[in-house]
């Protein structure tokens, strides 16, 4: 990979991690407070980013989500939940690595692969 492309990818991920963290918090707040449903969807975008971009962006998104949540809600007991989010990112990363070894997408299946990466 060329140096310019590598730098562009790093900057893209630096911008994408805070956006994913904000989306985690926004979606979770919308479902809990807007729909009054007892669902906590604050790791959905962490999972999607880990699957599509790798382990470090996933962990960064998990940490940013928890930092923003603690600073906004002021609940210190949420600090321990960051360990669950990091463990989830690690498990998704391991699954993706094993998934890639078992199944290589053909050029005829880009829609299916992009759907799996988004989930």
How would you describe what is shown here?
The protein is built from five helices and no strands. It has 119 residues and is mainly alpha-helical. Helix 3 packs antiparallel against helix 4 (81-102). It is globular and about 45 Å long. The two termini are 27 Å apart. The relative contact order is 0.12.
Helix content: over 70%
- What's the total helix number? 5
Succession of helices and strands: HHHHH
How much beta, percentage-wise? Answer: under 5%
Measured on Cα atoms, how large is the radius of gyration? 16 Å
Main structural class? mainly alpha
Low-pLDDT stretches: none
The total beta strand count reads 0
List the helices and strands and how they pair.
Blueprint: H1 3-34, H2 44-53, H3 55-73, H4 81-102, H5 110-118
Descriptive key words:
5 helices; 119 residues; mainly alpha; single chain
């Amino acid at each position: 990979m060329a140096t310019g492309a590598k730098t562009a990818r790093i900057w893209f991920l630096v911008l994408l991690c805070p956006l994913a963290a904000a989306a985690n918090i926004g979606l979770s707040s919308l479902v809990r407070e807007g729909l009054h449903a007892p669902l906590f969807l604050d790791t959905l975008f962490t999972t999607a980013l880990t699957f599509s971009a790798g382990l470090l962006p996933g962990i960064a998104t998990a940490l940013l989500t928890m930092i923003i949540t603690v600073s906004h809600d002021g609940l210190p007991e949420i600090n321990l939940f960051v360990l669950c989010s990091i463990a989830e990112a690690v498990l998704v990363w391991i699954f993706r690595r094993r998934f890639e070894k078992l199944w290589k997408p053909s050029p005829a299946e880009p829609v299916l692969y992009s759907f799996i990466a988004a989930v």
